[in-house]
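Example 3.2
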Amino acid sequence: MRHPACLFFILFLGFGCSGIRTSPEDQKLFLKEQAVLHHGKKTLYDHVVDLDPGKIQGTASSLFYELPPRTIAVLPFVDQDKGDYYLNKIPLSQRDPLSREKYRWTRAQRVRKLIYGNLAQREYYPLRLDKIDEVLKQHGIKTSEDLLKISPQVLGSWLNADALIYGVVKNYESYYGGVICGYSIAADVQMLSTKNGEQLFYSSGSRNQLGFDFVLNPTDLLINSATNATYLRDVVLRRAEEDIAREIVLRIPTRRPLPYFPQAEKSLGLSPHVSSKKPPSKENTRTSSPIPSYRQWDDDKENRGFFLSAQQPGQKLPSNLEHPRFSFQLSNKNNQAEKKGEIRKADFALAPIEEPKGKSVGKQKAMPSNLLCAASSQRFFLPEIGEKIHGKKSLYDRLIEMDIQKPDIVVHPDYPREAGGKIAILPFSDQATGGNFLVNRIPLFPKTKSQKENWRWTVSNRLRRTIASYLAQKDFEVLNLGEIDTLLKAHGLTTMQDLLRISPKILGKWLSADLLLYGEVTQYEGFYSVVWAAWRVGARLNLVSARSGTRLLTTSGTRTSNRFIPAITPVDVAIAGITTMTTMMRDYKLRQAEEELSRELVLRFPALKHSPQNSENHDLPSSPMDRVSFLEWSSKKQRAFCFFKNEKVI
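Structure, written as C-alpha cells:
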C-alpha cells in the first residue's frame, strides 16, 4: 500500500508544476459570470477558520430603489484615531501634531481609495478622487468641519454627482499575543442622495487579519511566538484594508444598466424583440450608428446592439438619451406619472443585503444623520505616507511567504507622452484553465461545453475587474466595464477572435478611449500536497495607445497565496494536511491571490501626469514597433524584446 500511495503523491506534485495553455481565439465573450456577488465575501466558515470576530452589515433604504444613483463621489474620509501607532491598544509612538495629522489622512485615504476602486469595477460611475479633491479645494474645504457645513445638495451641484459617500475609519490597530498576531480595521460608510440629502445606503463593520499557531510544547511555543511577529508587516495590513473595502462595496445593491431592464425597454420601445410590420433594412441599420459595424447584421437577427438598432415604426426614443451612456430618464415629463408604476424594485436585480430580521429597510436610517457629526476634526489634503510602496511586496515578504517571483515590466519610451486620457480595459482571455477548475492541473469537476465557456469568461473577468479597481486607485481614468462590453457587443463582437481582429485605432474610436489594456490569464489553479497548499494566479497585461497603436507597456507576473506546515511524524503530517486544506483551499484565499497579483502589477505602472497634452504631439510620427501579438508574449522574452528595430530595450 505504501508504494501506490507514494506514487500518487509524486504524481500529485508533478501535475502542479505547469499550467494548461489554451487557444484564446475560440473563447466566447460576454457570458454569465459565476458568483459575481459572492466571490471573495467571507462566510461563517471563513470567520471561524481565520479567527475573525469582525462582521459587516449593510442597509439600503427604499429611496435607493426609487432614485438609484449613477455617478457617485467618494468624499474624503476621516480617521477617528489620534494618529499614533497602537499595539494592543497601547500607543507606542508619540508623534508631533503635524505627523499625527499626516498619518490620520493617510489611513483615511487608504480606505477611501479602496472603496472608490471597488466601485470602479461595478456598474456605477465613481468620480475620480483627484478631481473631487480639486473641486473641494477651490471652494475652501480644508477640514472635516468645513465639509460638514456644506449640504449634500450643494456638494452634488459642485461635483455633478447623484450620491455622496462619507466614511469614518474607527479602528486601525495591531495586536500581538504570542501565538496570535495581526491587524484590525473598522469603518463606517454612508451614502447620501444629492437630490434631497437623505440616506441611500449605510454600512458598518470591521475586519481582522490574524496569524494563529497554537502548540503545547514549551519550545515550540517560543518558536511560534517569534515567528508570529513576522505577521506584523505592511502587506498584511494592506490585506485587512482590502477586505473591509471589498465587503462593504459588495453590500451595495446592484444597479443594472437601464437598456437591459425588460420593463424599461418595453416602456421606451427599445426591446429588440418588439415585432414590427416593416423590419429595418440593412441600410437603415448601418446609418443608425455613426461608427460602422464590424459585422453584417441580418434582417432577422434578434440580439443586435442597442446603439446599432434602427428606430422602428411606432417607437419613441427618449429625447435626452446620452450616447453611449447607460443612464437616461425613463420617459418624458408628460408621461412620467403613467410609466412610474411600470418600473419595479425587482427590475434592479438587487444583490443580497445583510439586514436585521424584523426591521423595515425603508425606515431604517443611520445615526447620526451624517457620519462626520460624531467624528473629530481632521485636516485634508496632506502628503500621504508610503503612497507608492504601501502593499508592495518586498524581498522580505516574498521570502517569508515563499513567493519569490517578482513581476516583470517593460516600458516604451513614448509612455510619458502617450499614456494619458481615458483607458478602456478590454475583455481578458483565459489561457490557463481550459474551462476547468484546476487543482494540481487536475479538473475537479466534469463540465459541459457551455459550463467551460462560462468558467473561462468568469476567470478572465475576475482578473479584469480587479485590475480595473487598482488602476482607478492609481488615478487612471478607467471607462466603465459594462459600457465597454455593451459597445463591443453592439458592434457584433462575440468571441476573442473577433476582438483581436479589430485594430487599436478602431477600438479607440468605438469606445472613445485613448488607451487600451489587453490582458490574459496565464495561471489560475490551486495546489495541494498535504503539508503545503496554495492558490496561484498569473496574468499578462499590455497597454496600447489607441492613437498610434504603439504598445506602451508590458507587464506580467504570478502571485502565490500559500501555507506550509513542516511535519515529520505521521500524526503531525495528518494534522498539517487537515490544516492546510481547511485554511487555504477557500474562495476567500483565491480572491486574495487575485487582488495581490493585480495590486503588484498596477503598482509598477509609471505615474501619469494629468497635465493636458499638446495636440501637436499627437501628429508626430513614431518609430514602428515590432508586431508581436500580446498573446504570444512570453515573460522569458521580455528582456530581449526590442521596441524599435535594431535597438535595445531601455
